[in-house]
């Protein structure tokens, strides 16, 4: 059985507050846990009024405290924004509080625009050292070595599982070389999905964390009580990413009242500059479509 997980951006709908969004995320995580989902991940974005998960480790702590079994983690932490020691301490703390339930997905994108990147005190070239930063992070979460002067407390020896996130072949190659699990962002880079998975599987080298390739793929799903309701919900995402393509960022727009609600299956569509998406409709239909998607691409091989 293909395990299902959720990636949450803690969206802030129009007319609500970031606090509302964070409480919604916790409520969603509790539902996901009851339904048997394996993971609930949150993503780092900055200076976006429609996303409330900027302090990602803090939000993960809130979700982990409000649930009991589901794995909670980052999908992901934009590692070049941070010193590896800080991330090792943050996620070491989370692992110490919620043992066996924390995941650490890391990516190399800024998760924001160029002006905010400078406000984060980030060197624009810091993405170039991403592989070295991952190795440093692994060492800080690994066993204490003889002569090691700097350690993460908590963090050292806790072996928090690290995932490589990506939307291109670079992340696939790095995950394969380091023997780490790989999460691919096909929800906005669908054309590179199969080449990236092929590179990852063909070049994978076993490691102390993972003996064989293990991949997770992000896809967009809109589920509701009826097909028409699902199509109306999808209009919020369509509006948001159309606005982003035109340089306008804001809170998650309200769903359109003019959406086509006939019985026809919605066509595959591509918002400007973004992903192809399909509204699959009712929850059972969505589940069947996801399983067919997974089988067709052999995601867990």
Summarize the structure.
The chain is 38% helix and 13% strand. It is an alpha/beta fold and 301 residues long.
What would your notes on this structure say?
This protein is α/β, with parallel strands linked by helices and 301 residues long. The protein has two domains: 6-160, Luciferase-like domain (TIM Barrel); 228-297, no CATH class. The protein has nine helices and eleven strands. The protein has helices at 18-34, 56-65, 84-97, 114-119, 130-141, 169-178, 193-203, 227-245, 283-297; strands spanning 6-8, 39-42, 71-78, 102-107, 162-166, 182-184, 215-217, 223-224, 269-270, 276-277, 281-282. α3 runs parallel beside α5 (130-141) and α6 (169-178) packs parallel to α7. The longest helix has 19 residues, at 227-245. 36% of the residues are buried. The model is unreliable at 259-281 (pLDDT under 50).
